[in-house]
Amino acid sequence: MKFHWNVSxxxxxxxxxxLYFERPIQISQFTSRDTLVAKLTQPSLFRDAxxxxxxxxxxxxxxxxxxxxLVPSLAATLxxxxxxxVGKVANYGxxxxxxxxxxxxxxxxxxxxxxxxxxxxxxxxxxSVVYPANAKQFYSYFITIATF
Length: 148
Hints:
Layout: E1 3-10, E2 15-21, E3 35-40, E4 47-48, E5 54-55, E6 60-65, H1 74-122, H2 133-146
Helix pairs in contact: 1-2
């Protein structure tokens, strides 16, 4: 497997090594993970933190399993871009919905007020006042609307 590496940082107790694989999709794809094995050729430069900071033995070997790698592909890039666009559209949609609800709440309150007034007016024939026939006809049409 072809790869190249670089050391990104070194401090008293750790070395961080970045690996760049030619075909990262092939790394650790099966039930057993691939392993990185590092052999220190000059152990006198390093100390063992687990054993009282003693100098490491000659030809010390360390190994670490390599997790499954993802390939930065066009599909992944497009998915991230689409996610950002969907997030912005959802944010704008929620804002527009809030503003429309706020504006329409005034007109709906006016509509509810008109229905309430209509209900009061429609019940006028219950009073002991004589109404003309055309007014009674008007009230008979609107009584079904006013009482839902």
